[in-house]
Automatic annotation (TrEMBL), chain A:
The lineage of its organism: Archaea, Methanobacteriati, Methanobacteriota, Stenosarchaea group, Halobacteria. Pfam families: Sdh_cyt (PF01127). The keyword Protein biosynthesis does not apply. Keywords: Heme, Iron, Membrane, Metal-binding, Transmembrane, Transmembrane helix. It is found in: Membrane. Its main location: membrane. One of its GO terms (cellular component) is membrane. This is Succinate dehydrogenase subunit D. The keyword Transmembrane applies. The chain crosses the membrane at residues 20-39, 59-82, 94-120. GO terms for molecular function: metal ion binding. InterPro entries: SQR/QFR_C/D (IPR034804), SuccDH_FuR_B_TM-su (IPR000701).
Automatic annotation (TrEMBL), chain B:
GO terms for cellular component: membrane. SUPFAM superfamilies: Fumarate reductase respiratory complex transmembrane subunits. GO terms for biological process: tricarboxylic acid cycle. Keywords: Heme, Iron, Membrane, Metal-binding, Transmembrane, Transmembrane helix. It comes from Natronorubrum texcoconense. The chain crosses the membrane at residues 79-97, 118-137. GO terms for molecular function: electron transfer activity; metal ion binding. It holds the Pfam family Sdh_cyt. Its main location: membrane. NCBIfam families: succ_dehyd_cytB. This is Succinate dehydrogenase subunit C.
Amino acid sequence: MAERYSSFTPGGTGWLLQRITAAFLVVVLAFHFFQLHFVNHAADVTFAGTQARMENVGYFLTMVLFLIAGTFHGVNGVYNALVNQGLKGTQKKVVLAVLVIASVALIVQGIYVAMAMAGVEIV
Amino acid sequence: MSQSYNRGLIEDFGRWKEFSAGMWAWIFHKFTGWMLIGYLFTHIAVLSTAVGAASGDASLVASGDDIYTTTIQGLESLFIVRVLEVGLLAVAVFHILNGLRLLMVDLGVGLDAQDKSFYASLVLTAIITVASVPTFLDGVTL
């Protein structure tokens, strides 16, 4: 049939993880939108309400996993889009380093925020 | 089996008039992906006001006057933010539906209908987006 159109290395870890996170994100992103726009309206969000949701361990862990999966999927997608666009050599290494640092920063900040929402003290 | 197919440089967007359904799906998926990851960084930045709310005066949280609540409700009171949220929903729904289409393409399911499933993604995105407009614009005025 057809040749491969994807920019990912066939059978590579990045390719596989992109698909595994995709399958997870499809469900959780749809849930997230539904939860915070239809069940609870975004305009009615309060810190007390957020706290109540985040104090539930299952919800907290889902949101943290959502953050990690979303960040990986998005940043890996951006990286592969740039590689597909013809990025190579030193530029490719620099872009990868910047994206990894940005991802780690986003995940660390996100978890810090999630802990603040759940009322977990950080000493 | 595998056969040679020269797709040319799709990255040359000047060729857009030659693009077929699959190429448009590829471009839309990329465009919506950029939007979503850009939004994720902004989203965490806005939600970071929770740190201030958690460490601040507890009575402000009780009365709903903490920085997290006032920031979110302040943003939500702006009509333009509601419009942007509808745009975000459209972008997310298309990325989800086309992503499901891509997972099926990867599994080799329904390859012959890949163009039709792209059109279906667009139509479903439009329907879900339009149907959600009243909910998203609820309680806001120009």
